[in-house]
Design goal:
CATH class: Alpha Beta
Number of domains: 1
CATH topology: Rossmann fold
Distance between the termini: 41 Å
Order of helices and strands: EEEHEHEEEHEHEH
Strand content: 15-25%
Largest sheet: 5 strands, parallel
Helix content: 40-55%
Number of helices: 5
Number of strands: 9
Strand order of the largest sheet: 4-3-5-8-9
């Protein structure tokens, strides 16, 4: 199945991870780590394009920056949860701390990881997200 996105034709099977960030530095870090690990990665810079890409390609894991031009990671988690086969959402931040991690987990995202940062930890979290497969809903206290 071929889909049009950002003037590029993408095979559904080619997109396994969707990176979402308005930051060129973050997009580069995500793309470098993922492609070196052998995963295909599609990059977009906002929530609207992310949702179109999720619907069109069936990306299994979404890696998103905390703040996007048209929303936040929370908006993306909420929208992903509405998909028939919701992707796991991994939130990234250069300033990942315990308070943000708690917020991310309680809101239903898969995990929080520091990007740019240690690529080994980032890849470990993405591998685990593939195993998990989907956002299952808001965690309860």
């Amino acid at each position: 199945m071929k889909v049009q996105n950002h003037c590029t034709t993408v095979e559904k099977s080619e997109v396994s991870v969707l990176g979402v960030s308005g930051s060129v530095q973050v997009r580069r870090a995500i793309n470098l780590a993922l492609t070196q690990a052998g995963w295909s990665c599609r990059q977009v810079d906002n929530c609207t394009e992310a949702l179109k890409t999720i619907e069109a390609t069936g990306a299994r894991v979404v890696v998103t920056d905390t703040n996007l031009s048209d929303g936040t990671w929370r908006d993306l988690v909420d929208a992903a949860r509405q998909q028939p086969d919701p992707p796991a959402v991994v939130v990234t931040s250069p300033h990942a701390d315990e308070a943000l991690w708690t917020d991310v987990i309680e809101h239903g995202a898969f995990d929080l990881v520091r990007v740019p940062g240690e690529s080994t930890e980032f890849l470990r979290v993405v591998r685990l997200a593939f195993g998990r497969g989907a956002v299952v809903g808001r965690a309860t206290a």
